Amino acid sequence: MNKNLPTGIGRLLAHIQDLIDTGVKAVLRPGGDTGSKKKKKRFFNFFSEMGDSYYKTYEKEKRKK
User: Fold this and answer.
1) I need a labelling partner for 54 at 20 to 30 A (CA). Which of 25, 39, 47, 64 fits?
2) CB-CB neighbours of 47 under 10 Å
């Protein structure tokens, strides 16, 4: 089997994972105050904080390997 094929597929999957990570992080990032209700803001802040925690832990684990 050609070594370029598995290497290429691995790189492709890494780029796809990075794209998904970037997209999710952008969605979970808190935005400026748009005048939305407090309940809605708390809901998004919860997921924003959860996303930040996930990515901090994810980055630490990636650095260990």
Assistant:
1) 39
2) 12
